[in-house]
Amino acid sequence: MKSTLQNYLKENALHGTPEFPVGFYEAHIPKHFQNMLVHWHEEMEFSKVLSGVLRYDIDQVRYELKEGDILLISPDTLHSAQQIPQASS
């Protein structure tokens, strides 16, 4: 049985369909979001960063993603993301 905290952190949105439980997201940072709080879901998640820089924390491992990077997150995996402000030229 999942703990109360695990149930609290479960995202209620449906990603994909029951037949193909994969969500695909194009992320323009910061246009689409600046921060994504820690959560998990039963579906796989596939993201491509089209612009900006993100820091993803996935099962307590930190990754930095930039334009053109692709990310695949396994089902039932805790993850969050934050925008990394880019240094001005």
Main attributes?
single chain, 89 residues, mainly beta, 4-stranded antiparallel sheet
- Gyration radius, in Å: 14 Å
How do the helices and strands follow one another from N- to C-terminus? HEEEEEEE
Decide which structural class fits the backbone.
Answer: mainly beta
End-to-end Cα distance: 51 Å
Low-confidence stretches: none
Q: DSSP helix count?
A: 1
Give the oligomeric state of the chains in this entry, treating copies of one chain as homo and distinct chains as hetero.
Answer: single chain
Q: Helical content, roughly?
A: under 10%
Description:
- By secondary structure, the protein is mostly beta strands.
- It has 1 helix and 7 strands.
- Strands 2-7-4-5 form a 4-stranded antiparallel β-sheet, with no helix packed on it.
- The longest helix has 6 residues.
- The chain is globular.
- 16% of the residues are buried.
Architecture blueprint of SSEs:
Blueprint: H1 4-9, E1 22-28, E2 35-39, E3 44-51, E4 53-58, E5 61-66, E6 70-73, E7 79-83
Parallel strand pairs: 1-3
Antiparallel strand pairs: 2-7, 3-6, 4-5, 4-7
Quick recap:
The protein is mostly beta strands and 89 residues long.
